[in-house]
Amino acid sequence: MHLLQMVGRYVVERFEDGDQEPANTAFALAERVFTAGPPDDRGAIRYGLLEEIQNVSSHRMFGANAFLPLLGPVTAAQWHELNEEWAGKRSLAEVVASEHGKKPPRWWEWPPWKWWRWRTRRRIGPDDVQDPELRKIVESMTRKQ
User: What is the mean pLDDT of residues 88-94?
Assistant: First the structure.
């Protein structure tokens, strides 16, 4: 699991327990990265953090929309773009296919790993993160306990 996905799950779990502070911190950092961070960090925040918060919270009683009031303007725009990417789609395969102007494979077009080759998301580590605050979070999560 991607490190920022773990942060996203943590944010949702804390929010569910009534603690909004991790969400406030995560979204403030996201806003800063989206406005002034390097492109790689922006993609990591978008697909690692925001998408995970949306996915996990959509299975909770409060739903993903509970986080909307906490988002800054740029983060809110990214949040809505993610929703548009997923609109009318049921699986990641459909999202990926639409990004590349293709149709997702049918069950008889196996093996699926051949179809997925043209889209890879690399995992990031502390050395890949430029933003100092985000790097601290990633480093704290990768240290051996």
Answer: 76
- Reading the block at residue 47, the tokens are 């697909």
Domain range for 19: 3-142
Angle at 87 between CA 30 and CA 33, to 5 degrees: 10
Check: CB of residue 119 under 8 Å from CB of residue 96.
yes
Q: How many domains does the chain have?
A: 1
Q: Which residues contact 49 (CB under 8 A, 6 or more apart)?
A: 4, 5, 7, 8, 11, 26, 30
d(CA 68, CA 70): 5
Q: How far is CA 16 from CA 13, 26, 51, 59, 112, in A?
A: 5, 15, 17, 11, 36
The yes-or-no verdict on residue 145 having pLDDT over 50 is no
Neighbours of 29 (CB within 10 A): 20
- pTM, whole model, 2 decimals? 0.68
Could you tell me the pLDDT band of residue 94, with boundaries at 50, 70 and 90? confident
